[in-house]
């Protein structure tokens, strides 16, 4: 197993963790706080020395690793199929963003401006999520290709939930950028899926 493939798997886990948090929020009106904190914090790791530095530690990625294993496994459940769709959409959206360097600069500048809010309130505070959601709305949501989130209307119509969903989608894009920087390509999601699942399962086994 090459280190680069392990790093790609970690970045993929970051994508799937963000997608899982979107699904939880849209269908249950809430999501686990520890993975949410890891996911939001990843947006502000702009100068990491290695891949894991983006997420803090492997425990912070446990939700994403589990979701990756299920969604890319042989028989994913219906909810995991939905999360897989979000993950693939994030990869597709990142590819579109890559062709818009000015927008990438704008996103980077606004995330840097939001850093002060995180330092003051913490990464899971509603003010932070609203700030990040506005970045997503003003940039990525203007693309013709959009990520349609499915869930229960009573949850989706709550402003705080909508902000959390957009903030997690923005963080998912950050992981998709990282995955691309590590050599990840869309065709690998089909032809290397078993290897990614095996790596994720191995990491989870070591964490238990």
Automatic annotation (TrEMBL):
Transmembrane segments: none annotated. One of its GO terms (cellular component) is cytoplasm. Its main location: cytoplasm. InterPro entries: HflD (IPR007451), HflD-like_sf (IPR035932). It is a peripheral membrane protein. It is found in: Cytoplasm; Cell membrane. Keywords: Cell membrane, Cytoplasm, Membrane. It comes from the Bacteria. Belongs to the HflD family. This is High frequency lysogenization protein HflD homolog. It comes from Halovibrio salipaludis. The gene is hflD.
